[in-house]
Each structure stands twice: as C-alpha cells, then as structure tokens.
Amino acid sequence: MMQKLFHYASPQNFYPLAGKLWPVFAALATALTVWGLWLGLFVAPADFQQGEGYRIIFVHVPASWMSMVIYLAMAFWALLGLTFNTRLSGMMTRALAPTGAIFAFLSLWTGALWGKPMWGAWWVWDARLTSELILFFLYLGYIALSSAIDDSRRSDKAGGILALVGALNVPVIYFSVKWWNTLHQGASVSMTQGSSMAKTMLEAMLIMGVAFWMHAIAIALYRVRNIILVRERHAQWVADLPEVKAHALKEPS
Fold first, then answer.
1. Burial class (CB in 10 A: 0-12, 13-18, 19+), 1
2. Lowest-confidence range among 79-88, 90-99, 238-247?
C-alpha cells in the first residue's frame, strides 16, 4: 500500500491519475449540488424562528466547513513536503489554496447576508467571524507568498511553513463559540449530542457539504495537472503527452 502511494508521489505518475479522477468528482459535485439545493430550497420546511431566511445555511455552513478542511489539507500536504521533500506535495498545496480562499470568502459573504436580518448588522467583531476573516487572509497570504518566489522549491518551503503555522487558527474558529461569549450561534450538528435540526434540513446540509467536498477535490486535481505541466515542461514525459503534442501541432511555426 505504502509503495503504491509513493508511486503516485511522482508528478509523472500522478498526472494521468488526476486526469481520470477529476471528471468523476466534478460529476458527483454537480449531481449532489442539484440534489442538496432542491432539498434545502424547496423541500425543507421553514424554520420556526428564522422563517425562510435560514436557507442560506445550505451554502454558508458547508462553505465554512470546507474553508477549514481545505486549510488543514494544505497543512497536511505541506507537512509531507517538508518531511519527505516530495515535489507533488507543494503542487497540491498550491492547487488547494485558491478553492479554500473562495470558500472562506463565500463563508464570510453568506454569513453577512444571514447576519443582517438575524443580528441587525452585516458584520460584528465576533470571535468566529474574526478568526474566519484571519483564515481568509491566511489563504491570500499563502497565494501571494508562493507566487512571489520564482524558485519552486523555495516557494513550496516558504508556503508550507505558512500553511502549517496558519493551521493553528482552524481550531480557534471551530471552538470559538465555546471558548468565548459570542453572537454566533453554536453548532446545530454535534458528533456527541446529535442534531437539533429537522431531518430534511440536516440531510440537505450534509449533502451540500459532500457536494462542496467533491467540488474541492475535482478543482484541485484539475488545477494540479496544470501546475505539473508548467513545472515539468522541460521533462521528456511532458513532451510525449498526446495533449501536448496536439497543442504543439496547432501552434504556428
């Protein structure tokens, strides 16, 4: 098993695997998103306190989950890269960052839309909101730092250190409503206490969570293939790829 994993640690071996997998995850993401939105917007009942306005949670909550999960995934790949010096690790870390930044922005934006009717304000310096904003800036900082360094090895190392340090902010986001007295409501879904939501609401939110996860995997695999082609462009195996040959034939001489 470990030997097979190390086999795919090579960009040359991972490139075709990612090409086979990303369309599958993209199709799953599309189907699950349609299903989840249909349940959340048209089937789930209105909330007895928040009325119809609560339905934004079917985007807000999964986006918030994914903003944290993706950063932890970046930290995982960064740790692998710094420990084993694998080239693919830095590429995967870089491939995940833009999607994580988008989810963090979506979490903040939908949270503001939800907070206005619930709290009467678009933004408050609540512990969870502030730590989520810090997470968004960490994503932007990683993207800026890794893009500013031309040497890919140095870029991966510097970005990996930032990803590992920034991961300390993720538990702060998750436990902020327990550690401090905040306006943000507590979790509606608990691993130990179950869920306080109606069954259809919970199903819709979990389906959207899986859909966002499938989307993140599909986009990361698609993006890492482009990163591999750029970084390995001088390698013979890249020149031998059918898609590269076809593109070269189309270019004017």
1. exposed
2. 238-247
DSSP category for residue 46: P
Q: Which two tokens stand for residue 173?
A: 């986001």
Please answer whether residues 135 and 173 qualify as being in contact, where contact means their C-beta atoms are separated by less than 8 angstroms. Answer: yes
Rounded CA separation 96/33 (Å): 20
Q: What is the pLDDT of residue 227?
A: 96
pLDDT at residue 181, rounded to an integer: 56
State phi, psi for 79 to the nearest 5 degrees.
Answer: -65, -40
CA dihedral 59, 68, 74, 206 (to 10 degrees): -50
**pTM: predicted TM-score of the whole model, two decimal places:** 0.89
Q: Quickly tell me which residue has 């059918």 as its tokens.
A: 242
Neighbouring CB atoms inside 10 A of 11's CB total 22
Among the listed residues 145, 61, 134, the one whose alpha carbon sits nearest the alpha carbon of residue 103: 61
**CA nearest to 44, candidates 195, 187, 189, 198:** 198
Distances from the Cα of 187 to the Cα of 145, 176, 180, 196, 234, angstroms: 34, 11, 14, 9, 50
Q: Residue 253: which pLDDT band, with cuts at 50, 70 and 90?
A: very low
Helix (H) or strand (E) holding 195: strand 194-195
Collapsing DSSP to helix, strand or coil, 188 comes out as coil
